[in-house]
Amino acid sequence: MKKQALLAMMLALTLILSSCTLIQKDAAVDAATEILRLGDAVVTKGEVQEQVEAQLDNMAYLYSMYGYSFDPTSEASITEARDTVLDNFRKQLVSNVKIAEMGLDQLTDEETAKIQSDAESTYQSNLDYILSSNYADSELSDEEKNEKAKADLEALGYTMDSALENAKQNALSEKLRQEVIKDVTVSEEEIQKEYDSRVASAKETYENNASSWASAANNGTTLYYTPAGVRFVKQILVKFLDEDQTKMDEAEKKGDQAQEDLNAAEAKISAAQETLDSEEASEEDKAAAQTDKDSAEAEKAAAQEALDAAKKEAADALEAAFANIDATADEILSELQVGTDFDTLMKDKGQDPGMQSGITAERGYAVSADMTSFDPAFVEAAMALEKIGDVSGKVRGESYGYYIIKYVGDAAEGPVALDEVKDTLQSSLLTTKQNSTYNETVQSWVDAAEFKENLGALKD
């Protein structure tokens, strides 16, 4: 009896253990598990997991772009990504409900055509990316490349149908957004308050830093306060000839290489001398060190000779380069002396792209005495001009050629007039307010919605 009981227990245990191996999740069934439901709309486990993985991959990429590490396998990273994805799905579900309630899903022929066009454009962009990435050097025919690229996209879950669905969803979401924000406005009081805040901030930043202000102004930044000591100048640049620039670049490379060789030789000499000065070094080591030092001294002498030769070559090339553009610069100065318009000559004969179009061509470069982002020769000559309208002679630049500079105006110290920046402020404030209104509205819908949630299934 005892043997029979023991046999029965072993058999039962065997059945239990074997049944455990049989209880395995079907991947498709598991992926179809409902995680969120709102009415008839469902978000599955597979959809959540796919978006979580995409979110983690994107975060890893962004972190790497800035040189930071990111662990997509950590519990904290996965939890944060999952929370973000679930929040986005909740917002999408309630937004779709509101789109239907407001009748925004009723599309006009024009809207349908635009959705189709947008989808085709996006799909083609992705297809072109796959073609250039995977088949740029392929010997396949264009038709074969196209088919393979389409198959690659489909393997990634991206088809023309999905592109069309995405384009439709984007269009409907934008219609909803426009409906929510249609009555959002910005008052004069809000504009004034923002203006005062930006003026105060800009004054703190730039009042004692004219150089930073000038650099920001040249980059097209909207500024709200101007420090003292900034002026605007225009220039006609007469560039070195290409062949002369090439010779100077080659001489500079020779100089750089000679300097590297010189530094290396000096390092060898220093290392050898340490051994020679060491009381612990053997006579054999010191003899070897003396040999190394003698060899390095010869290397140093050769490197110094090469460096001197490169410097002379660079200086000679620079003088020749200026000589080859002297006539052109003199001709421009002669035209200015007989009354030819500076801006006309700047446009027709100047070779500085910054003086051909944009705010710098229209207003001139902002310059201050302490500026370091421009050629020192340019800054010194620009600040030496005594009154508005004065024009320099030929100014030898360190890198580009001759500058012919005109003093065209001063930047008025103090706050920028509200009227000059009002449109920018209004646009910025309106965008911020619209975004805030839309986000708050959607969040209120989420808070009021009755979701059915099965979040525990995500941990299985």
What does this structure look like?
By secondary structure, the protein is of the alpha+beta class. Helices cover 67% and strands 9% of the residues. The chain has 15 helices and nine strands. The strands form three sheets. A four-stranded antiparallel beta sheet has the order 5-4-7-6, with helices on both faces. The chain has a three-stranded antiparallel beta sheet with strand order 2-1-9. Strand 6 (395-396) and strand 7 (401-410) form a beta hairpin. Helix 3 packs across helix 4 (75-101), helix 4 (75-101) packs across helix 15 and helix 5 (109-134) packs across helix 7. The longest helix has 55 residues, at 283-337. The two termini are 43 Å apart. The model is unreliable at 1-23 (pLDDT under 50).
